[in-house]
Write a structure and sequence with these properties.
Elements: E1 16-23, E2 25-26, E3 37-38, H1 40-53, E4 55-56, H2 59-67, E5 79-86, H3 90-102, E6 106-110, H4 112-117, H5 122-130, E7 134-135, E8 139-144, E9 147-152, E10 158-159, H6 161-167, H7 178-191, H8 195-209, H9 224-230, E11 235-239, H10 252-270, E12 276-278, H11 286-294, E13 299-301, E14 308-309, E15 320-321, H12 327-338
Parallel strand pairs: 1-5, 1-15, 2-3, 4-5, 5-6, 6-11, 12-13
Antiparallel strand pairs: 1-14, 7-10, 8-9
The protein binds zinc ion.
């Protein structure tokens, strides 16, 4: 990303070059506590806005072009790279045909474990267990894999379709109802434990709740075959660790393993080098960045909403989280990000 044309400037006067957008799933869902899904109609409207008001580029092209920029400024159109994290199956089924129709490149950051295990991501599975209308036992008491989940449910015991419809509008930061509060509490408990222990606790939670239900088509993970078919000229696959841990919370050795094993796994599936990486939850310490670098990455994205400038560190590229907005709202946000 360095170029002889590049002029060195302090950050305050860095030349803003472009924006990297972050999506997750593309689909219609009736419960989305983390705002991870954008409807296909809204996604297509976003792509139309991008072709009208921006210069869509693949992430690696945007990063290398930004390093060589010397004359672009805030007056021009932003270069914009579309990215999607995690690897929802709807990226292959729904997003890819829309990207092709509008000829817009994208990067998908894939987690290895779900590719081989199938099913849904753990946060969606937990939503399927907890946020379904019905009655749950009035107490949760599960002990497995060295972890103990114990709490009375109180007002969260019953959950009506009407309460679920209210929770459909819940967004991170809102005051949660009783069942949503239970979901968020369990989410926090499960986030920071290892992949194997989490799987065991989820199985126990299914038993406790009277499950398990089959994975939902709207939420399921990509299969290896779907990932292979997705990788090509328009969609590039990047790394997103083996099991999606909060990297700064684990040892440097384990961070390296999570990053390197995922890179090798994807490279063996795709039969080509995997060059770009996304930190799970956007979480990265200096040590995490060093681990990504030692794994061979030169481009890695965070979730810090900052534009790409000619002085951006290639291993700390900011991204803007795109929500389920219509085209007008998306265009307004894009403009705001571009001209703060
Ligand atoms: Zn992720």
């Amino acid at each position: 990303m360095l170029s002889r044309l590049r002029r060195r400037r302090p950050d305050a006067s860095a030349t803003t070059f472009g924006l990297v957008l972050m999506y997750h799933g593309i689909g219609e869902v009736d419960m989305d506590p983390w705002g991870l899904f954008v409807s296909p109609a809204n996604f297509e409207a976003h792509l139309e806005v991008l072709n009208r008001t921006a210069r869509p580029l693949a992430l690696p092209a945007l990063v290398s072009a930004a390093g060589g920029v010397s004359t672009h400024g805030n007056g021009g159109q932003p270069a914009v790279a579309v990215t999607s994290d995690d690897g929802y199956a709807n990226i292959a089924a729904t997003a890819k045909p829309l990207l092709e129709r509008h000829d817009i490149p994208a990067t998908l950051f894939a987690i290895s474990a779900p590719l081989t295990e199938g099913g849904e991501y753990w946060w969606d599975e937990l939503e399927a267990i907890i946020l379904q209308p019905g009655t749950l036992p009035d107490h949760l008491d599960i002990e497995d894999a060295g972890h103990h989940l114990s709490m009375p449910l109180d007002a969260a015991t019953t959950y009506t379709p009407a309460q679920r419809r209210v929770d459909h509008r819940f967004r991170d930061g809102d005051r949660p109802g009783a069942r949503m509060a239970l979901y968020l509490r369990l989410w926090a408990e499960l986030r920071d434990i290892g992949h194997t222990a989490r799987r065991r606790l989820l199985d126990r939670l299914w038993d406790w709740a009277g499950g398990p239900l089959a994975p939902r088509e709207s939420h399921r993970n990509l299969t290896i075959e779907e990932l292979t078919a997705l990788d090509g000229e328009l969609v590039t696959i990047g790394g997103h660790t083996m099991t999606h841990p909060l990297l700064p919370e684990i040892s440097f050795r384990r961070q390296r393993r999570e990053i390197i094993d995922n890179k090798r796994h994807l490279e063996s599936i795709l039969n080509r080098p995997v060059d770009v990486f996304s930190y799970p939850f956007g979480a990265h310490s200096n040590e995490t960045v060093a681990a990504a670098r030692s794994a061979g990455y030169h481009v890695a994205v965070t979730t810090r909403p900052t534009p790409v400038t000619d002085t951006t560190d290639g291993l700390r590229i900011g991204r803007f989280d795109v929500k389920n907005w219509d085209g007008d709202e998306f265009a307004r946000r894009l403009d705001e990000w571009w001209r703060p």
